[in-house]
């Protein structure tokens, strides 16, 4: 297989060897090796282990490539077998249906590499690197700019796609460029101007382009003790105002400006309201927590209930920030 760079920051990936070996793992699960890579594709992989809500059924097929060659081989496999592809980062903003997801789920969480460039103050990181870990590492080095992100338990890829943000900062403000694998196998370098960034959205959402790497502009040369202290302050603030002790996806709804979704939900009397194992958190009403044994459908019905109650009380329809994937049946 070759990956070739062409004009305009575009690379082409071609020549994948497609001889594959299938082994039966157990009665109802198969493992397929992708030749020339260390990557395997597994059938019936339960996604509750890969999402922060700890709910969700199985992916029909699941791959967790560690590099571009394995990622491309996984995509080739999906194309050949006509399988829809779903991309997963750390699964910290996802509600996966109890019925699971048809097609191939590709997790980019094992894409790892990072480079802090002292000359430019730029941090270049692979899609699977953890945002909170990067915030701590930058702080240790005395690099400012990522302190705000310490409480966001996602990957670089998910943060670029979601325009993750907190404490009045967001990814759009610091992204220099991102490397994207397109459906036709080309690698492109794009900038924030190409991404149509708005509050917690980007043009990458719902699309078929995969973030493989990103470069962020930071500010080296500060006192590490100072940067660590600010990072710690942000973390402590989050721990005291948001329920990190139960599985969740963070804020469930977008804030319908000028209002905060959490305030509208709280004023509608919904704090503590529970359906099955899913509960509106006591500490922060824009969080739905899995109190133990929740099903994705409990969370989905609770989302619907909150939307209806807030609509009735405030005439505002709350739009979910959480991405729901797979099938959900309305009608609790
Ligand atoms: C306790 C808690 C607190 C949170 N606090 C915040 C907060 O303060 N601010 C905030 O913005 N968010 C917050 N979140 C939500 C979440 O962490 C962010 O949205 C995060 O950016 C999602 O990253 P992820 O890697 O988990 O992406 P996932 O949840 O796995 O995916 C999110 C979306 O990105 C896509 N995606 C992921 N990786 C890639 C890739 N490599 N290429 C293409 N598409 C990809 C997925 O298909 C999906 O559409 C919180 C979540 C939790 C659980």
Q: What is the total number of structural domains?
A: 3
Assign the CATH architecture of the largest domain.
2-Layer Sandwich
Q: Level of helix content?
A: 10-25%
Bound small molecules, by name, code or SMILES, are: flavin-adenine dinucleotide
CATH fold naming of the largest domain? Uridine Diphospho-n-acetylenolpyruvylglucosamine Reductase, domain 3
Which CATH C-level class of the largest domain is it?
Answer: Alpha Beta
- C-alpha termini separation: 51 Å
Major sheet summary line:
7 strands, antiparallel
Task: Tell me what the structure shows.
By secondary structure, this protein is of the alpha+beta class. It folds into 3 domains: 2-107, 2-Layer Sandwich (Uridine Diphospho-n-acetylenolpyruvylglucosamine Reductase, domain 2); 114-240, 2-Layer Sandwich (Uridine Diphospho-n-acetylenolpyruvylglucosamine Reductase, domain 3); 244-325, Uridine Diphospho-n-acetylenolpyruvylglucosamine Reductase, domain 1 (Alpha-Beta Complex), CATH 3.90.78.10. Helices cover 23% and strands 28% of the residues. It contains 6 helices and 20 strands. The protein has helices at 68-80, 131-141, 156-162, 224-241, 261-267, 296-314; strands at 2-6, 10-14, 21-26, 29-33, 40-46, 58-63, 85-88, 94-96, 101-107, 114-117, 122-126, 165-166, 169-170, 175-181, 186-190, 210-217, 274-275, 278-280, 288-290, 323-325. It has a 7-stranded antiparallel β-sheet, with helices on both faces. The chain has a 6-stranded mixed β-sheet with strand order 3-4-5-6-9-7, with helices on one face. A 3-stranded antiparallel β-sheet has the order 17-18-19. A hairpin with a 3-residue loop joins strand 1 (2-6) and strand 2. Helix 2 packs antiparallel against helix 4 (224-241). The longest helix is centred in the last third of the chain and has 19 residues, at 296-314. It is globular and about 55 Å long. The N and C termini lie far apart (51 Å). Residues 1-18 have low confidence and may be disordered.
